[in-house]
Amino acid sequence: MKTQIIVRKKHTGRKLVLLNTLVKRETIFKTARNSSVKLAHFNDYMAMPEKYIQAFSEGDGIYFEGLNVAVINYHKEEELSYMKKGLEQNEILSAEPERYVYAIDRYDYLRGYRDGINSLIENYSKLEEEATEDKAMGERRRKFTDDERASWGIKATKVLDSSYTGKGINIAVLDTGVFKKHVDLNGRKISTKKFVSTGSAGDVDGHGSHCVGVACGFTDEAGIRYGVAAKSNIFCGKVLNDEGEGTDGSILAGIEWALRKKCRVISMSLGAPCEVDEPWSKTFENVAKRAMKMGCLIVAAAGNESNRPFLAAPVGHPANCPSIFAVGAVDSGLRIARFSCGGINQNGGQVDLVAPGVSVYSMINKQHEHEKWDGTSMATPFVSGIAGLYFEQNPDAAPLDVWSLLTQNARRLNLSSFDAGSGLVQAPLD
């Protein structure tokens, strides 16, 4: 993993256009043509979805009918305004810039959080005092440890005490791909799709494999348990390239694919940093609501931009959407991880739960190999896998029901709800 400071791009120049669910496909394409906008349909690329990017070089954008979202090319502002005029009132609900998104790795917090630092330190100076108190309490707090039976995260979340395995539950992990040939995945049902135009079909980075291992894996060759939903059906969408970079469009493509595959949980250890008081994406909020109506809960990493105890950064995109389940990270002493983002924005962007996110053991992208990684990326698949267990326990449950079960059954921690939400995620027990 790299530790140098990296300046990352924020916007692609394209637009996300959120459409009313009542507007018909024929109306959208007719209005687009009349406005000199050449739209492609995502259905045209389902066989090879990584080719959907051609819609922006051969045309002006792409339409995700399952999500009621279009992504329109840059330099099409005037044509987009004509589209708005051509449609009836409220048929285009919003338009916003498309973002670049990244794998949330364990060193994101080193990239810093440059904007709003002064106001944050002024308004949250008490964080240092709270951290001092927490350190004193930590001396008396029992730490969870890895041993020959299980990783500390599996023990802390009570997965070992649960009789549920995620059997029959489809769980999607949208990330950098997966190393399907890892010995720990032998015999598992795995479906994969690539939604980026460059790089390999597999997992060069290892980030996606690590997340798949936590959410859906089981044990290593020595019998050490580290995975949650050991009998789930794995759907892995490569929405980030080999450098861990993607776009909102690639995520939307992965979400639409996962919904078509009837996934009950979508796990996303990715995103983009948000500024203080930055609003959430209306597009992703509506996509999350639509996913819930289709029986699917979206879980996302809160982000690693904090540098505690001096700086708590706000929950990132798209985890800051109210209808996306946002996950923060704790260490083996159940202290908030120094990099974990917090729910400091008053208008949305709360943390819903925390999960193990420091020194988390899982498989990587090499045969027989495993590593311990840090990040809210590692915490997120714990919650995703456990959500799968709750869906197995409650087959007729709606996503909001599982959301409630996750928060109601969480272990309460001596941490602020801004940092830890309802507490530490816990597996369902009989």
Characterise the protein shown here.
The chain has 430 residues and is an alpha/beta fold. It has 2 domains: 11-99, Alpha-Beta Plaits; 108-420, 3-Layer(aba) Sandwich (Rossmann fold), CATH 3.40.50.200. The protein has helices at 25-34, 54-57, 77-86, 117-123, 126-138, 152-156, 207-216, 248-260, 282-293, 376-393, 399-408, 417-420; strands at 11-19, 39-41, 61-64, 69-72, 92-103, 170-175, 190-194, 233-238, 245-247, 265-268, 270-271, 297-301, 325-330, 353-356, 360-363, 370-373. The strands form 3 sheets. Strands 1, 2, 3, 4, 5, 9 and 11 form a 7-stranded mixed sheet that branches. It has a 7-stranded parallel sheet with strand order 7-8-6-10-12-13-14, with helices on both faces. A two-stranded antiparallel ribbon has the order 15-16. The longest helix is centred in the last third of the chain and has 18 residues, at 376-393.
Short description:
With 430 residues, the chain is of the alpha/beta class. The chain has helices at 25-34, 54-57, 77-86, 117-123, 126-138, 152-156, 207-216, 248-260, 282-293, 376-393, 399-408, 417-420; strands at 11-19, 39-41, 61-64, 69-72, 92-103, 170-175, 190-194, 233-238, 245-247, 265-268, 270-271, 297-301, 325-330, 353-356, 360-363, 370-373.
- Relative helix content: 25-40%
| Structure class | alpha/beta
> What is the CA-based Rg, rounded?
21 Å
- CATH-wise, what's the superfamily of the largest domain? Peptidase S8/S53 domain
How far is it from the N-terminal to the C-terminal residue, by CA?
Answer: 40 Å
How is the biggest beta sheet arranged? 7 strands, mixed
> How many structurally independent domains?
2
What's the overall average pLDDT, rounded? Answer: 91
The DSSP helix count reads 12
CATH topology tier name of the largest domain: Rossmann fold
Number of E-state strands: 16
Label the CATH architecture of the largest domain. 3-Layer(aba) Sandwich
The CATH first-level class of the largest domain comes to Alpha Beta
Shape: globular
Helix/strand order? EHEHEEHEHHHEEHEEHEEHEEEEEHHH
Low-pLDDT ranges? 1-5, 106-133
The fraction of residues assigned to DSSP E strands is 15-25%
